[in-house]
Write a structure and sequence with these properties.
Layout (H helix, E strand, L loop, with lengths): L4 E10 L2 E11 L4 E5 L6 H8 L7 E6 L2 E2 L4 H5 L2 E4 L11 H11 L5 H10 L15 H12 L6 E5 L7 H16 L3 E5 L3 H4 L4 E6 L2 E6 L1 H5 L6 E6 L4 H8 L4 E7 L2 E6 L5 H8 L10 E2 L4 H9 L5
Helix pairs in contact: 3-5
Length: 305
């Protein structure tokens, strides 16, 4: 199967700052690929290079069998791009935005436009100004405009940021429909539950790729670590002590549940002994399996969140 996208040592420098550093990736048709990283890790820069908005400093990329440097105009006619921030015209109606973007690609097909509006639940809002839509429906309109020319590869830069869980799930159902139709989706996100929905993932840290595999295989990257969880109330002194406990790499709190990533020197017995020094609470730590957030935080600790 011919890859939809192949990147080889793709690099982008802004003066002395390297935003993306020798990135290698490969995406297959019908695949949803997720790119994750803290703020300023290089996610948006990567998409902007591949969409032809900014020029890479070095490296190469083959998109849909075309060279990013030599065949950019043809590439642009075959890809779709949904920007991180709403990039349509708020003073135009939903239909007017769609007609305008369709015209940019010489794909002014009223029947397809009607089908897209219906598929993405926008038909009741067809005559509403885009600026009057809710955040979720703005995202839907951005998707519809990006799909107006039936692209084969779709770049989605944080497509569900700030959207409620129900709408997010509905959009992901539509993403799966696109993948089932043979489209390739390149998605950036900060949501770990969305990362779990992807077929393939890569984590960026300071512009470098620190993980690239399926979600299940990426979780195995912490097989050499110990993962512990236990219920914990508000105990600032205990938390301060954990921060200085030998072997602890990451402490992550979820409500009343504490989650630790530690090296092998911190055994369950040692952790239990430490927690027993706080008799005000009955802490019962147990071992757990690594999740994607454990891996993500461990590999990208030290970057801006």
């Amino acid at each position: 199967m011919t890859a939809s996208l192949t990147i080889n040592k793709l690099t982008k420098r802004f003066g002395d700052f390297t935003a993306v550093d020798k990135l290698d990736l490969a995406l297959q048709p019908g695949e949803i690929f997720g790119l994750l990283g803290p703020n300023a890790a290089g996610k948006t820069t990567t998409i902007r290079m591949l969409a032809g908005i900014i020029r890479p400093s070095s490296g190469s990329a083959n998109i849909l069998g075309l060279d990013l440097f030599k065949d950019l105009n043809e590439i642009k006619s075959r890809i779709g791009y949904v920007a991180q921030h709403f990039a349509l015209y708020p003073e135009l109606t939903v239909t007017e935005n769609l007609v305008f973007y369709s015209g940019l690609y010489s794909s002014d097909d009223p029947q397809r436009q009607a089908e897209l509006l219906d598929q993405y639940g926008l038909t009741p809002y067809a005559n509403r100004h885009a600026g009057q839509l809710s955040g979720g429906y703005m995202r839907r309109l951005s998707m519809v405009c990006a799909l107006s020319h039936d692209p084969e590869l779709i770049f989605l830069d944080e497509p569900t940021a700030g959207i409620d869980p129900v709408t997010r799930k509905e959009l992901w159902d539509l993403f799966y429909d696109l993948a089932m139709a043979g489209k390739t989706l390149f998605v950036t996100t900060h949501y770990m539950e969305e990362a779990e929905r992807c077929h393939q993932l890569a984590f960026l840290s300071h512009g470098k790729c620190v993980a690239n595999d399926t979600p299940d295989e990426i979780k195995k990257m912490l097989d050499h670590k110990q993962i512990y969880t236990f219920d914990a109330g508000h105990e600032p002194a205990m938390l301060k002590g954990l921060n200085h406990l030998e072997g602890v790499d990451v402490i992550n709190r979820f409500g009343n549940t504490m989650r630790l990533v530690a090296d092998e020197s911190l055994t369950l017995d040692k952790l239990t002994t430490f927690l027993n020094t706080w008799p005000s609470e009955d802490y019962v730590p147990v071992q757990a399996s690594a999740n994607l957030e454990d891996v993500f935080i461990t590999l990208t600790t030290g970057e801006s969140e």
